[in-house]
Write a structure and sequence with these properties.
Length: 188
């Protein structure tokens, strides 16, 4: 990472750069997530439209705030946060959200996978930063708790009374939408 001219006291330049690199990947993920959540807010249709449409806006706001926290931590560490769409698309290791206009349950099935990916990577970042920079670790821990609760909001729609997730085993968003829809038909 370039342009580390100063950092926080007590953290060497090398460690600052390492932590900022980890945070940059989280910044891409959070920017991708709030845009994706807004995309779903706009494209959800069908009988559960309003519930999902309205559930998502507070998530968008929080995730945007988390992107801001992560970007400003990168700057605090002496790095230069990259917030442009081109850099995001060029550097992300996941695919673009693949569902357009679709029913609530289909989008929620796909969002289950989206949240799983972001949260698992946040947890890896917590592990990777813990020894070097507990301040960054603490930031990511706080964010993860809230992201996990949002993931539960999504999953609660996909769960039956026995606690089984209709989307379990899905590896792609398409698969997840099909399984989520089938799960709803089963319980009707
Ligand atoms: Fe809106």
């Amino acid at each position: 990472m370039a342009s580390n001219h100063y950092g926080v006291p007590g953290l060497g330049e090398g460690d600052s750069a390492k932590v900022a690199d980890i945070l940059q990947d989280r910044l891409y993920a959070l920017n991708d997530l709030h845009l994706t959540l807004k995309h779903v807010h706009w494209n959800v249709v069908g009988p559960h439209f309003i519930a999902v449409h309205e559930m998502l806006d507070p998530q968008v706001d929080t995730v945007r705030e988390y992107a801001d926290q992560v970007a400003e931590r990168i700057a605090t560490l002496g790095g230069s946060p990259k917030g442009t769409p081109g850099a995001l698309v060029e550097n992300r290791s996941w695919n673009e959200y693949s569902i357009g206009r679709a029913g609530a349950i289909e989008h929620l099935g796909a969002l289950d996978l989206v949240y799983s990916g972001v949260i698992a990577s946040h947890r890896e970042a917590i592990e990777a930063t813990g020894d070097v920079d507990p301040i960054t670790e603490d930031l990511l821990i706080g964010q993860s708790g809230q992201l996990e609760q949002y993931h539960w909001f999504v999953r609660a729609h996909l769960e039956n009374a026995g606690g089984e997730l209709s989307t379990s085993g899905a590896e792609t968003e398409r698969e997840a939408t099909v399984l989520a829809e089938a799960g709803v038909e089963e319980t009707v």
